[in-house]
Specification:
Strand order of the largest sheet: 1-2-3
Subcellular location: Cytoplasm
Mean pLDDT: 94
Structural class: alpha/beta
Low-confidence stretches: none
Radius of gyration: 31 Å
Organism: Ponticaulis profundi
Protein name: Glutamate--tRNA ligase
Number of strands: 12
Keywords: Aminoacyl-tRNA synthetase, ATP-binding, Cytoplasm, Ligase, Nucleotide-binding, Protein biosynthesis
Largest sheet: 3 strands, parallel
Number of helices: 18
CATH class of one domain: Mainly Alpha
Bound molecules: glutamic acid
GO molecular function: glutamate-tRNA ligase activity
Helix content: 40-55%
CATH architecture of one domain: Orthogonal Bundle
Amino acid sequence: MTTPIVRFAPSPTGRLHVGNVRTALINWLFAKGQGGQFLLRIDDTDLERSTKEYEDGLREDLTWLGLSWDDTFNQSARFEKYDAAVEALKEKGLLYACYETPEELERKRKIALSRGRPPVYDRAALNLSAEEVAAFEAEGRKPHWRFKLSGNRVEWNDLVRGPQSIDTSSVSDPILVRGDGSYLYTLPSVVDDIEYNITHVVRGEDHVTNSGAQIEIFMALGGSAPDMAHTPLLIGADGQGLSKRLGSLSINQLRAEGFEPMAIASLLAKIGTSDNVEVRESLQRLSDEFSFDKIGRAPARFDEKELHKLNAMLVADMSIDDVKTRLGGIAQLEACDNLPLFWETIRANVTTVSEAAGWADILYGDQSGIVDDEDKDFIAEALKALPETTVTEESWGELTSHLKSETGRKGRKLFMPLRKALTGQEHGPEMDRVLILMGAERARARMQAALN
Ligand code: GLU
């Protein structure tokens, strides 16, 4: 097989979300697994909707995920290339001027549907006389330009969907250039794929129909079409499309919530495939395991609960060095004089590193514990037995054995009131560690405050 050159081609009209990042990831994993190249193309021909902020944002998101690119370019810098392709197509008689207004096209569409015919453009513009054209021009109408499909079947062997066949007589000749001279995505994409020697076009299955027309445009412009792979779209755990929730599933949002890049990448790489959904520590490993053959035809289910699970597994495995920089920004940790012990103690109790802030607050912050009425005497006794100054490895054991013999309590009745009085929580890390981290003074203050 030739060394792949692939591209990810987002439009900078919004933040990247899990859906489009999955496309980027699949491109990257495929290319890198074969020693190939991954290009980042910015589809910003729509000058009104594209913004520099979104472009910066998507570069930042891809970088954070580790999806580095070998080359990058903007379509907005390449209009003369597209103009040249337009001229070439016109010369071949494959691009024709149309003067219908949107209302006229809509009327034609409705008529076709009411007659039980597919709403395919009737090519009326091909039969316009010179006078009719002159009349439209005199009215001030500007033509839009359609590509003349062959009417034959276009076939390709899709790397995900298998053999595909599109009857181009059943689809409308696509508009490539609008009346105001702006480009739709179809032509610039092909021009760039040819010039950058793209070997594989890998994208969502919402582009399958475009591929029929685009393959003909590839041929018309003298290139042969690249291989194609169209991946099923993402759905949520409830089986519904994700479109309404994509804002909350943007990469910068997930990042802000403390999710790890490899948890996101692992989930997106494995869902909808024959592999188990498991966390991987590197993109390289995901890449080694990647194959188009493993991708199924059914939509891939994106379940946030799985993301939490994978993230918690990554976090629980993190070394103190991994977490140090991430924990750096947590103000509550300033009171912590033993970061390794803090991390060791709480890591099994957090899903994201940022949740460590909550535990830092519980251990070092200005919180009060909880004491139920029936435990007041018990906690008062505990307060007496707490070490005066230094908490050691033995302190918790000594405290609880003292209380056991003094009060006759054991099990949950012994431990839970202490946990609640010290942390205000019913669940959490091992109490011997909690006591060490908290220190004698803070532990006393907590219990005292809870008793008052
Ligand atoms: N800008 C297009 C999109 O985001 C690119 C599609 C393609 O990969 O060809 O849908």
